[in-house]
Amino acid sequence: MASEARQHAYVPYSGFAVGFALHLGDSDGIHQFMPGVNVENISYGATICAERSALVAAISRFGSRSFDYGVLVTDADPPALPCALCLQVISELCGPAFRLVICDLTGPRNIYRLEELLPHRFETFPGAPTTS
User: Which end of the chain is more exposed for a tag (fewer CB within 10 A), N or C?
Assistant: First the structure.
């Protein structure tokens, strides 16, 4: 699904298409995925990454859920990892045990737990939501 989604990326400035598929947890034996792609903007700060687009879409559609892994596909060699902004958002919404399957166009190359990629995540402040 991440490879398929990648074909819909809007990347007129960088040409760097990214696809992401967020696994929404096993609900009654049904596996659901939410795809996401990067969507660029001429104002680069308004660009959204594939990982965050999938998370925003999943929460918009299903509300808060259990997200246990995601699959990221790029054509980079070695395959690209999520940016620090995405890692921080994933950390808050998915928790440190969330797994990331990192792929190139031929298939999986590595699997990481979020805490390996972001060992010193921005911690929450008193009263803020927490993930475990």
Answer: C
